Fold this sequence. Notes:
This protein has helices at 2-20, 27-35, 42-52, and strands at 23-24, 57-66, 69-77, 83-89, 95-101. It has 102 residues and is α+β, with helices and mostly antiparallel strands. The chain is built from 3 helices and 5 strands. The mean pLDDT is 87. The N and C termini lie far apart (50 Å).
Amino acid sequence: MKILTAVSAAAAMSLIAGLAQARDISPDEAQKLVQAGTIKSVEQLNAAALAKYPGAQVEDSDLEQKLGRYVYEVEVRDAQGVQWDLDLDAATAEIIKTERDD
């Protein structure tokens, strides 16, 4: 009985770890998602990020699939030279996380 419980617990932990793991989306796959209307275009996502920090510039970006949704991660540098990391829901362009990068 103890072995079955241990095996079940290990399987559950593996499943949870797999769900929490992010998967990078290739540019080709991203283009297909945009064409299908699943996610916003990079231009729309960048515009949403830059609207939060007028005068900012995009320095880096990445598209990932996390917990069943597409997340656009973008680094911007604002007009004062401060770098910000933002996560946007790639389907809606809603900002879901903002963090100052020290």
